[in-house]
Fold this sequence. Notes:
Oligomer: single chain
Shape: elongated
Low-confidence stretches: 1-32
Helix content: 10-25%
Order of helices and strands: HEEHEEEE
Amino acid sequence: MVRFILLGLCFVACGENTEPKTAESPPEVSAHLNQDTTTVHVVAEPQTDFRGLRWGMSRSEVKAVETGAIKREQVRSLVYEEEIANENVEVAFGFDSDGKLNMVSYDFEDKFGNEIAS
């Protein structure tokens, strides 16, 4: 029984839809779960991959989402200055040759050593 429900959900969710999907109008999926036609509505939220961003975003889309101060801007990267967990951090966003987001890294600016207290 569960297999049929999951298969049915996949069939409904994966069916052809010619309308463009946008963040303003997430797709709605309806599935009948019981013999008495009890229906549940599942609304898909716009998904993000990291820090409210999606892999493949353009530079301008990343700039629109990020709120920190830009420290450096180069052809294939943007570097922001932020504070995370009370530490100064550089957040670097890398872009591929098509200008699509494909990398994010954190660089903690404070230096830590392996000093042993005596």
